[in-house]
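forwarding from the other thread:

> can someone predict this with copper (II) ion?

sure thing
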Amino acid sequence: MNWQRRQWLIRSAGAAAAIGIPSLGATVAAGGAVDVHVELHAEPGEVALRPGRPTRVWRYRGELARGEAKALTSSAGGYLGPIIRVRRGQRVRIDLINELPEPTIIHWHGLHLPDTMDGHPRFAVAPGGRFEYEFTVSNRAGSYWFHPHPHGRTGAQVYAGLAGLFLVSDDEEAALGLPSGAQDLPLVIQDRNFDADNQLVYPGGAAAPRRGRGMMGGGTMGGGGMMGRGGMMGGGGMGSMMAGMMGVLGDQIVVNGSTESGRDVERRAYRLRLLNGSNSRTLKLAWSDRTPLTVIGNDGGLLAAPLQRDHVMLAPAERIDLWVDYGRWAPGTELTLRSLAFEGGIDMGGMMGDMMGGSAALADGAAFAVHRFKVGRGAARNESLPQRLSTIESAQPRFAVNYARPKVFELTMGMMVWGINGRGFDMLEASELETVKLGTQEIWEFRNEGRGAMMGMVMPHSMHVHGLQFRVIERSVSRRFADEYDTVKAGLVDDGWKDTVLVMPGERVRILLRFADHPGLFLYHCHMLEHEDSGLMRNYRVVA
Ligand code: C2O
Ligand code: CU
């Protein structure tokens, strides 16, 4: 089928879906008061990240059209998009204005929204177009985020700089008196490759060849940088195909869109909201002096009670909230948040590395410094953390309609493309297995056993389900991978509500999902964006 016609069909199907559920569309509520209204421009820009030439990026620029000033904070210096701050229950309108030279759409990662507001790739808008979101925030307080989701181009667009935080607060959280203001510190961790001219290098392969102008090598980000020519690999062929399958890893760590290697902190308590915003790199985070981490929240908000961990795993798109009292360290201490070595990461070595033209300089699973904290000289404040944070009902798998027979979703590779149960992405299709009933709970099992993998190559995946928060109820790993798994298992935080879960090689992970409130078509996929873009993504359909 001709590409334009197919696009047209997809769009009209999207529009029909929107009309089919009238109470959920933005148009119906238009005219009603919104608490916060933000205009988000997705646009090319330049940022001074390193000495010398500025770096060409794509980024979100926000303008607050309505709401309190604190609802929108633009990023200081880096390329990252603004932070949107809302309270649970608020009505929010966001207008995406696409000033990029290619289609895009925004997904609100972790939010529980009608499918027409969720940023499914079928709603991608053309250059010059806009998409108006309007929804009520029903999520618990927590660190959610937003990023592009056009099919086949999510990896490239996020890599170019498009991502931002969406922080929700609520009364339960406010009552705890957690660190706020400058002590509520989000840290979005990403990895990038820069060329000698300070330009981002992304292998050309994340998308299938597109027609039309300027999509891949046409100079949208400028000649030799971002989109192909002259980069680590050419704009096509085996190298990019392999990168598309394996995942892009950078050797420069970027925090909040900036290459600054650290910051000063006062001798008092902070809340660090960590998001792994990397395209494909998994983190194993720990303090350099091996002080345990105090975990207070993750993807879906606060945990019931704080947890102590020597290290925490953070796969792409996962979040973790830490409480840290820098007063416990001596004045002037330099402390580093590190990523420790682990086994079972994306393996770029050997033949794969050669095919990709040299492999990544910083391997997945290698150790490196993430961010330095220089502790101030003032008196310590001795702050304390409440030992009860939140109410989290216990997961009740036996109420799942398929309790006796969990649905199995195998992460597969065949003919050099990713898939789930052997199927790649189809814009509007969901199979019978992928059809669920509104108001029910189900158990799903993600299996990562390398079915169809070339040369027995099995790598981690970061499985994300749109539109809801789920519970992780069970993990098991095959004996063959047990030693690798031992290097990560103590760092998995499966408590509380999750929207993304790391599935290590040889592992089976069972999750409990509840399909509430919103019928329609939603995605589930691997959040290693090059996997997602090359087929490790499918729809599920919620039917009334
Ligand atoms: Cu954050 Cu479909 O993804
Ligand atoms: Cu994956």
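Residues 336 and 372 are 4 Å apart (CA to CA). thats all i got for now
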